[in-house]
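Would you mind giving me a polypeptide sequence along with per-residue structure tokens?
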Amino acid sequence: MDITVRFAARAIDAVRSVAIAEILPRFRSVPASLKQDGSLVTDADLAAQEALTHRLAELEPIPVMGEEMPAPEQRAIFERGGRFWCVDPLDGTRNFSHGIPFFAVSVALMEDARPLFGTVYDPIADEAYFAVRGAGAWLNHRPLVVPSHAPALAQAVAEVSLRRDTAGLRGALKKRAPYARRLTSGSSALSWCHLAAARTDVLLHSGQKMWDYAAGSLILDEAEGALAALDQDDFWTAPLWTRSVIAARSAPLLAQWKGWIRGELAAGQ
């Protein structure tokens, strides 16, 4: 299967159609419940995943690994090797369940551990981000390239989401934050895309699952942004199932951001 312009357009149309049919009508009208891991799920997540499974099979009849599947099924799909779809049917479920209009659908075509194609669709803004490995990134139908000039870290807008492996940074970020402003959006997929669109400048997000980064990381990479993992510089070889992200609009800015984060974590040990 070649990833042609027609293929990309059909994939984006499938994602957009599912969002319009299954997610938007349920916005601010369905309750959330807790999964076993403590995260939230709604009928919109489940309906969108089921619909995407059918729509994506029409494009390429390969396995679909969705966030809402049981973990053993997810790993079985990955371990069989070859190509598969990686789907987050509703990224930002907490926002969605609280009526906050900031969430997305994320779909990536994976080959083993790497995305070949990825799209993230924001149904509120009607923005479709997508990328093809080695061919570039786009926002709707406009080429997406991070501007070559980026601010210094002291003037940067940072998207930060801390979990256990970065909890030691809480005090440092509160007392001596190296950036100008911080935000936490609640959507991993859109965080990648907004960095690629230069709406933010640096990103720190710990503990991302494959469906959190599969499409967004490819979009940032193909938009010529800079990305690394918390413990190693090569993002693509970091631990697969829980990958912590350090990213920036440019390589020099990433070097500043990465150096500060790793230095603070080392000092706190």
